[in-house]
Amino acid sequence: RPPRSTLFPYTTLFRSARLLKGRALFYAADFDGAILEITKGVSMIPPEKKVETGYYKKLLESANKYSAVMRKTGPAKEAGGGAIKEDAKTADAKSLYDSAAVYLDEEMIKFPANIDKGIGLLRSAIEKDPGFADAYLKLGETLGGLKGDYKEAMNVLTKIDHVARENAVLKRARLLRQKYYKLNMSQGKKKKK
């Protein structure tokens, strides 16, 4: 067996590979795989370098939370992958909304493809239940806040007036419409110059 000092580069390499693979699985929504890889990678971090573990512990907490949500909503796994694939035909609107909320979480949107997945799931939720005001609100927030598509966000948020019954939802939609209107107008002025 070689001395421990000669194994250091390989240990660091294996640890980094596990942590990177865990992050990739996390952003691909394979939360169970991410939990396994990140846990193995974190266990390889020497005690004197435990400062590095904070980010990965947060990722593990999120992966555990998201994994539970995805199991509860009952999505199917993609063949050969492990990534979650929500079947819009069999899922109900609430399940689609919950899955979209996972993809649109602060940590998940660091991988831009997750924003599009979340938007697709929200659109499917609205198709399933055209009276689902929270789905309209989340879709409007996502389109305006994350995609910068202010016109489409305003169109979606306008539809809430016909389906929402709660004053808080109506008020939030009105405030967002006003915000996106102003941003859209300022964006138009910049283009004219």
- Number of helices, where a helix is a run of at least 4 consecutive DSSP H or I residues: 8
The span between the termini is 70 Å
Shape descriptor reads: elongated
Beta-strand residue percentage: under 5%
Low-confidence stretches: 75-86
Physical arrangement of strands within the biggest beta sheet = 1-2
What does this structure look like?
There is one protein chain. The chain has helices at 4-27, 31-43, 53-73, 93-103, 113-128, 133-147, 150-163, 167-192, and strands spanning 76-77, 84-85. By secondary structure, it is mainly alpha-helical. Strands 1-2 form a two-stranded antiparallel ribbon. It is elongated. 32% of the residues are buried.
List keywords for this structure.
8 helices; mainly alpha; two-stranded antiparallel sheet
What secondary-structure arrangement, pairings included, does this model have?
Elements: H1 4-27, H2 31-43, H3 53-73, E1 76-77, E2 84-85, H4 93-103, H5 113-128, H6 133-147, H7 150-163, H8 167-192
Give a quick rundown of the structure:
With 193 residues, the protein is an all-alpha fold. The protein contains eight helices and two strands, in the order αααββααααα. Helices cover 73% and strands 2% of the residues.
